[in-house]
Amino acid sequence: MIRAATLALWSHWRRHPVQLLTLVVGIALAAGLWSAVQAINAEARASYARAAAQLGTDRLDRLSRSDGAPMSVSEYLKLRQAGWQVAAVLQGTLRVNGGGVTVTGIDLLAWPDLPAIAEASSGSIAPVEVLTAPGRLFADAELAKALRDRPDLPPVSETTALPPRRILTDIGTAEAILNRAGQISYLLVLPDQPKGRPPLAEIAPGLTRQAARGTQDIARLTDSFHLNLTAFGLLSFVVGLFIVHGTVGLTFEQRRPLIRTLRALGLPMRLLMRLILAELLLLALLGGAIGLVLGYLVAAALLPDVAATLRGLYGAPAEGSVSLRPIWLVSGLGMAVAGTLLASAQTLWRLSRLPILAAPGQHRWSARPRAMRMQMLSSLVVVATGIAAFAVFDGLIAGFALMAGCLLGAALALPPALAGLLFLGKRMVRGPLAEWVMADMRAQLPGLSLALMALLLALAANIGVGTMVASFRLTFDGWLDQRLTSTYYVNARDDAQGAELAAWLTPRTDAVLPIRSVEITTGTHPLFVYGIVDHVSYRRHWPLIAADADVWQRVMSGQAALINEQIARRDGLWPGSTITLAPEWETPVAGVYSDYGNPTGQAIVALDRLLDHFPDVPNTRFGVHLPADQAEQQAEELRAVFDLPPGAVIPQQTLKAQSRAIFEKTFLVTGALNVLTLGVAGFAILTSLLTLWSQRLPQLAPVWALGQTRTGLAWLELLRAVVLAAMTALFAVPLGLVLAWLLLSVINVAAFGWRLPMYLFPLEWVRLFALALLTAAAAAALPMLRLRRLPPAQLLKVFANES
Amino acid sequence: MLLTVDQVSKTYPGGRPVLQDASISLAQGESLSLTGESGSGKSTLLHLVAALDGFDAGQITFDGISYSTLDDGGRAALRRNRVALVFQQFNLIPSLTVAQNLAFHARLAGRHDPAWTTEIAGRLGLDGVLDHFPEQLSGGQQQRVAIGRAMSVRPKLLLADEPTGNLDEVAAKAVLDLMLDLVRVSGTALLLVTHSQSVAARLDRQAHLAGGRVT
């Protein structure tokens, strides 16, 4: 009985191979993009964990000052003398080729048990080389190559035991290259502490102990980025499930007579449901497996850019290669099965309640307005729930809740809204064909609504993300112009050369502005404090987003500081607040400036004031002002006189180009996911039209019989798809703008710490509108061609009385 | 003659011949029934006369137009302007109301006469259901709408394929009465395919198809 019933059920696929293909591809697309995003996230997180493990310090507790200020050597010595087994660490940032590289200097005498050091010791490097001047730096191959070009740095050894963009060295060497002599960022609490040592509060009351953090810091920092990717993956998953839902619905609609017959022949409903579930499970596993292959390929293609983004935006040690993980395979297949069952649940439930003798199901026109009203009501409830969540929660959760409410609500509202428009359209058009087209489109809506909802979501995501990126780009360009006002920038080898450079440049230029900074820690966050000298370019161009009236006067006289937007939003510090920059240095905040692309906090004070508190701040970077036409010649001269490497003198335009390149790379992945989502939506329309094909002939044949040509009807079919896509695209514009606002004003603020102004790009909407029409036309082209070439005999079957 | 079918043959790809040298003729205002067993080629002949499909050999001439000279657009124009069809399955347009279905063919042909359509609706007893959709009607009502749609265009030839085949005896008689009445009033020629000898007997002439040949 089971075999016979199974064969009967599967015979459907022999007659409808396109439906089978659609179902499998729908599952594969849903699982594929979701799995791709999961693979990217998993790889990035694995990179963080690997990086922490490679460094070898992630499992040790830390001691640091409660106020976040650097520790002194005397505190370290006191602890060592009291029996505490601790190792001092100095951590800072070194600029290499225009980017920041993390330098970790560890007291290797106290704690040499690090993978990179062990690797070096097993090779040709004697431990003494590492510990004595000029010291030795360890870095991965790529970074080591860049470091060897810097004559001001000690010798470099390549190691495979360090994450990308990280230098490991002895603390003494780190002090020298970071110009932070006598400073300690934190202490590592080593294993095997002696018993009976005095408590920490007794020896160093200013220090607090933090439990081993592993990869928590970077994971927390990048969480929002991964959440954004996950949201995109989920959107693609939902769009894919729309295809599955539509196909499963149609399949079982067409199988109803067969199912009734099987039941009439004595097959129990329970057994039938089991067979159908087994069939769906099998198809889900097949689609899921294809999706995993697809996901792997997409992840492999996108991961290098994502890794570059994570390194650029967060300084996260992400690598660019993807590897197969069992958990990823299992979760991908699990999502495929769960998604298929979810998308099929409604159909299966209706099927389980199907009476044997019920008449073949047909949409009841008289009942549809009520269903449409109910759907509209559901849409309002969903949007209201999103708004309520936004009001109750904060940050990312609030943003995503409102976004989900708006997207889902709008998708639910689309079919009733389109039905209303088509009803009005039918009243407005003249001519029987036009009226029929309008009425027919309305009749087609239930079959196409899921695909149109998918298109709406994809278009809205495109408009939303596109507006965000374009707004960001516009703001970023303006911001670069404000921030990078010097004609070129010079990096000296050391303080001595810095002084020589300044002396040489001063009489030959309009201005030489020192760029001097120190890295401190506030709480658990790093903060860079910059000291500047008064210059009109700051006063005129600096991108302040909030400021007191006499902001520059107060800052330059040493009475106040400027802080960047990230720290302002994170710590709630705005003009009028006070910020602690050192244990005895509290200063009012006079202004807040935008600082896009920077993952860390930043403050600006008068240079003299900075030197009062940090007299050893290196003086190696300068911004030089002079007429642009003299810049190139002077840069050449400068390189020749001071024997500077090419990277030591960077023109403003080069720096801007580098920044823009990083920016573009950052949003490459979202752009790619945008295109993929739109592609899936286009595929959803195609599959809907193909699966509706068998239902279309009974609608079209009578009109053909009444004197329309197949070619004319085929064009009308294309027109229908294009008109529905056009109306959907019109709805997508306001939805996309809401999405853009949420991304710019809520999600970005929570994720990156900066808020961007929103600009409108109507030409971009026109482009997307055209793209939507093109997508619909491309999707409708195949059914159109089929209709155009359909033999009359096929259409006549609709009228056939005899078998 | 309004319609001449002269030694027409038709074979579907990969199948046996459906029609072999079939010939019939029909004068203006005349009615002719086509009877025959299932698979005898009745519906195929009707479809060929309606210019819905092509034939392999022979000649069909309707109202002075030879079908051999018509391309797809010409065939569509002929269906739109000169003939009308009624099918067993009604084949109404589900997305249009009864009133819109009734007027649809005439409007496509550019010959919509609201007064005539209203009269047809009245004669067919459809006055009370004009704003209904087809699915809300009984089978007999739907077939009356199909007949009304066909007659609203004032065709020269009405082609009906088992128009009462899906109806019970009482409804079938009522529908046939109305159709014959309308055909008579408008002077339309009628070619009707039926299994029923009693239905066939009510028409002016009868032709029988067997094995693809008219006997």
TrEMBL record, chain A:
One of its GO terms (cellular component) is plasma membrane. The chain crosses the membrane at residues 229-250, 271-303, 323-343, 374-393, 399-424, 445-465, 667-692, 713-732, 768-787. It is found in: Cell membrane. This is ABC transporter permease. It comes from Ruegeria sp. PrR005. It is a multi-pass membrane protein. Its main location: membrane. The lineage of its organism: Bacteria, Pseudomonadati, Pseudomonadota, Alphaproteobacteria, Rhodobacterales. Pfam families: FtsX.
UniProtKB/TrEMBL annotation, chain B:
Transmembrane segments: none annotated. SMART domains: AAA. PROSITE patterns: ABC_TRANSPORTER_1, ABC_TRANSPORTER_2. It comes from the Bacteria. The keyword Nucleotide-binding applies. One of its GO terms (cellular component) is plasma membrane. Gene3D superfamilies: P-loop containing nucleotide triphosphate hydrolases. Residues 3-215 form the ABC transporter domain. GO terms for molecular function: ATP binding; ATP hydrolysis activity; transmembrane transporter activity. PANTHER family: IMPORT ATP-BINDING PROTEIN, TRANSPORTER, PUTATIVE-RELATED. This is ABC transporter ATP-binding protein. It comes from Ruegeria sp. PrR005. The lineage of its organism: Bacteria, Pseudomonadati, Pseudomonadota, Alphaproteobacteria, Rhodobacterales.
